[in-house]
Amino acid sequence: MKIKSKFRAIFLTMVIIASSLAGCASANKEAKEPSATPTQTAEKSEASNTTDESTNEEAASQVISEEAATLRLYGPGLFTTVGENGSTDIVTGVSKPGYKVVIDRWKEFYPNVELQIETIPWDNWRAATQTAALSGDVDVLLHGSSIVPVCEPIVSYLEKEPEVREAVGMMAMRKNVELAPLSEYIPYGLTITVNPVMVVIDKEIFEHYGVELPNYESWTMQDIVDLAKKTTGTDPVTGKQTYGMSMIAANSTNKNYIWSSRAFNNAIFEWGETLGTTKVNFNNDLTRKTLNYLTELVSFASPDYAEGLDMAVAYTADNNLAMFIIEDAYSAYNTIKAAGLENKYMFAALPKIEAGEFAGITSSHMGDWNMAICNNSKQKDLAWAFIKFMVTDEVVQQWLLDTYSIPANKAASSRLSEFMPDDYANSISYVVRTSPLEFSASANNCYDSGNFGTFANDLTTVINEMAQGNMDVEAAIQFVQKNVDDYLGTLK
């Protein structure tokens, strides 16, 4: 399979295909793939002054044939969290509708296709999902895109329907040397919801110190350091000790390396046709810049950061952190809202990448909840229809918003301002809207934990050791480089 040529075909034909879809969709779509929701069909009918009879005929054409089928879904994530009939968070009191909403909506289009959804917790989810996939009894893998050996690449589906690719702000992109050079990304599924890395800013602390709030669309990496320094000390109003910065928890500090190395464009990988021919240059000046930067930021953190205790009073009136970096933005907002402190805080995207292919794009990366087609499924087209439905159907997008999730669908995520103040919504939608699809947090030119298994742990170790003064930058670089070289040596 020539993945590279296929992706070129997507971009070269996108305009032509997209413009022709409106005129030929009803004629060319198979019965199994409804081209519009009932609401969209009604809008189209009203616009063209069609009769009620023709509207009913068109709506009926969107329904699947009488053929019966069972589509089996398996895995962790949102379905597990909310359950079929909904759930209520005991801390925030937030209630979320269950996935029965999705089932009922699906039945409108596919009344004879039963959805069998088996949800699992995150504990050992990889092993459990892979075992289920290999059994041959699963069609859709919930959050399965990371398990490349059991997933079906969706390149051919996106070639036929490029508008799906255009609808989302993130896609489950992975690398697989068996299908394409490691320099290329392959889409292995569709991202349903995202969790962008954001900066929470305590506006009161900034005000107390007389420091102007930053504009996240223009601030720089140096601005973060300067602001952290200015807001570390004794609060001029309360007399309490404050700290300018808390990053992603010390036990996951490799994730701080992801955004900072991206911001500095520290591209350490020279991808070859295989891992054995790939070169890794961790020993370079941009690595030094990145590690020194993180070490400097930690100097403005609370002494409790290393133990993960500095967030104990975050999201409260007694918060002492001027800025802190988080991964789960919507949960953070709900916590802030439950405490009645929406006016005290705001969200900001991380600064823009300074150079390289993605220069000018925020360095905030996004985690995701995705869905993939199991490569053992005998109903791959139907599985595709379902995961496409999950990112394009308007009722599903509303359900995602109602579950306090951030849809990967760009149009839906732009509606966050209906659910939270602009101080929170605008920065989130900014990240979703501006992030390129081929911008995977787990596999990129600056960081790769998928193809280099110990890389994440090695980075966590050295960054924390430097923060505690037990290791200098040069020793850290040599430690990581040696482990990478040793691993690559086993492949040759």
Give an account of the 3D structure:
The protein is of the alpha+beta class and 492 residues long. Among the domains are: 69-192 and 369-434, Periplasmic binding protein-like II (D-Maltodextrin-Binding Protein, domain 2, 3-Layer(aba) Sandwich); 198-246 and 301-364, 3-Layer(aba) Sandwich (D-Maltodextrin-Binding Protein, domain 2), CATH 3.40.190.10. It contains 19 helices and 15 strands. The chain has helices at 3-28, 38-47, 52-61, 78-82, 100-109, 125-134, 155-160, 162-167, 203-209, 221-230, 254-263, 285-298, 329-338, 380-392, 394-402, 410-413, 422-434, 455-467, 473-489; strands spanning 69-75, 87-88, 95-96, 113-119, 140-142, 171-174, 186-196, 198-202, 233-234, 241-242, 269-270, 279-280, 323-326, 345-348, 366-373. A six-stranded mixed beta sheet has the order 4-1-5-15-7-6, sandwiched between helices. A three-stranded antiparallel beta sheet has the order 13-8-14. A two-stranded antiparallel sheet has the order 2-3. Strand 11 (269-270) and strand 12 form a beta hairpin. The radius of gyration is 24 Å and the shape is globular.
